[in-house]
Amino acid sequence: KAYYWSQDSKKISFLRFDDSKVPMFTLCNADGIHGEIEVQHYPKPGDPNPDVKLGVVNIKSAKVTWIDNTINKGDYIAWPMFTPGSEALLYQKMNRHQDTLQVMFVDLENSTPKEIYRETQKTWVEFLDDLTLLENEEGFLIRSEVEGWHHIYRYDLNGNLKNKVTNGEWSVKDIAMVDEETKIIYFHATKEKSTEKHLYKVRFSGKELEKLTEGEGTHNCVVIPNGQYFFDRFSSCNNPPKLVLYNLFDENKKIIADSKTQIMNDYKFGKVEMFTIPTEDGYNLPAKWFLPSDFDESKKYPIIFSVYGGPGTELVSNSFPRRGLGNFYLAQNGIIVMEIDNRGAGHFGKKGKDEMHRKLGTWEIDDLVSAVKWLKKKSFIDTLKIAISGGSYGGYTASMALARAGEYFKYGIAKYSVTDWRLYDNFYSERFMDTPEENPDGYEYASVMNHAQNYNGGMLITHGTMDDNVHMQNTIQLIDVLENLDKDFELMIYPNQRHGIRYPKYPHSMKLDVKFWFANLLGK
After folding, report:
1. Do 398 and 307 contact (CB within 8 A), yes or no?
2. What Rg, from alpha-carbon coordinates, does the chain have?
3. Residue 62 burial (CB count, 10 A)
4. pTM surpassing 0.85?
5. Do 81 and 89 form a contact (C-beta atoms < 8 A)?
6. pLDDT (tens digit, 9 = 90+) per residue, 281-322?
7. Confidence of residue 324 (pLDDT cuts 50, 70, 90)
8. Cis peptide bond upstream of 440, omega within 30
9. What angle (nearest 5°) sits at the alpha carbon of residue 343, between those of residues 444 and 152?
10. Residue 305 forms beta bridges with which residues?
């Protein structure tokens, strides 16, 4: 979103983009007789960024006041936010190198911005998407990872730190609600376990921290503005979501809805277990697997790793699957499905993520190899049928595992994958890799194509032709190399699909996956 209304509805802050120096990328729609061309400005790593100006327009007079610009700097501006009286504006700036973040304050009467917060990290910083302005005491709250774990800090509008609200080797996931009258902050966090999420409350001072949700699992809550009630949508590995209403005043609760229907009792769902897998250098990687309902340790089972792998994105949680029952279906047919997070997923704070800096494609695969080595010691794993699957960044992880670690992974499905970070957008890629000029060796090593000679299994590759996020160019360049190396693979193209395969083609995609797994892992 690039425009924001003031609370008094008299002003709009907005961002003006000049994309004229940003390179173009062309997408081809093959419909009709002559087809259609779709062209977009898409800056890839090292490319020029748009010139951006932040302005405020007065609705009545139509006068525009320019606040800040990034002309010839390539910096980023985001999240303009009016103060409660609509007389001043806060916004965030980040340098192109993405290691320094500023929060700027500007009184709209003099329009000279001043810095009220600065954060610098040795690897990368991220925008403060939970910055919360306080009306009664003229200050703000932020959720930052500056000291290694996401925690809440309280500042005044002059940039002075009043106090650190939360602390410890755990992460605040988001600020759910702030009650200024009682000076209480409601937030979600992983204080108990990194694979669980609960709702907590704490005073502005940092005192009287209290967990509000009950039961092991993942809780996603909505707090009513007066703080008397909250809704809790929660689930765990073996229990589908329930919606519960809590009354904080009398501690009563009421189940509003339960997604577990009677028909589920007619099916033999596989058992889901959570555990950790150790690495040689001291990490205990969170993992969970879906086992067949008639699991027998004396038998041999193929196994599929379901992965994502991107920095700061956790896949493994004590929660019921959000996207259907596919993993249970595969388990029902005799295939173990396992989810695992690498050291950079977020369970280990910024320390784990920082290890991925300038080295994408390294720890994602090395940690997976540690997991395979651990699995090979289990008598019930068919070590000749270890597979991997993922989409987007998960597609990158899957294809990179098949290429870099072909002796460990035999089969895989890679969907709408990044295959070379020089082909993806610069904001995301440069955050973790810097520019290709600054990190040429890192980009070379991170390219799937540069490891393709080690691929020696079976892979299904899928992509949508109109993917404007991860361009199909990534897949085209990968299959070009695989063909030149005389490697076997399967390819399915989905016309006019963007990023991800959606209806009406989604059922075809899901059935294709199942056929691939059944043929290669079950021989049927």
Report:
1. yes
2. 25
3. 7
4. yes
5. yes
6. 999 999 999 999 999 999 999 999 999 999 999 999 999 998
7. confident
8. no
9. 115
10. 338, 388
Note whether 362 and 370 are within 8 A (CB).
no
Q: Which residues of 136-173 are buried (b: 16+ CB within 10 A; e: fewer)?
A: eeebbbbbbbeebbbbbbbbebeeeeeeebbeeebbbb
Structure tokens at 202: 């704490």
| 8 Å CB contact between 132 and 186 | no
pLDDT for the residue 207: 98
The DSSP letter of residue 158 is T
Query: What type of residue is 309?
Result: G
- Check if the beta carbon of residue 314 is closer than 8 Å to that of residue 345: yes
Q: For a pLDDT cut of 70, what percent of the chain falls above it?
A: 100
The token pair at 465 is: 């032709």
Binning pLDDT at 50, 70 and 90, where does residue 372 land?
Answer: very high
Is residue 234 within 8 A of residue 218, CB to CB? The reply is yes
Residue 85 burial (CB count, 10 A): 11
Largest CA distance in the chain: 79
Task: Give the pLDDT band (50/70/90) at residue 250.
Answer: confident
Phi, psi of 192 (to 5 degrees): -75, -55
Q: How far apart are CA 366 and CA 361, in angstroms?
A: 9
For residue 251, the model assigns a pLDDT of 80
Query: Residue 367 corresponds to which tokens in the numbers above?
Result: 């940690």
Which two three-digit tokens encode residue 364?
A: 């994602």
Token digits of residue 280: 């040689």
For residues 479 and 489, the answer to whether their CB atoms sit within 8 Å is: yes
The phi and psi torsions of 86 (rounded to 5 degrees) equal 65, 20
Backbone angles phi, psi at 173, to 5 degrees: -85, -35
Separation in Å, CA 51 to CA 16, 95, 103, 227: 8, 13, 19, 43
Question: Which token pair is 432?
Answer: 């973790």
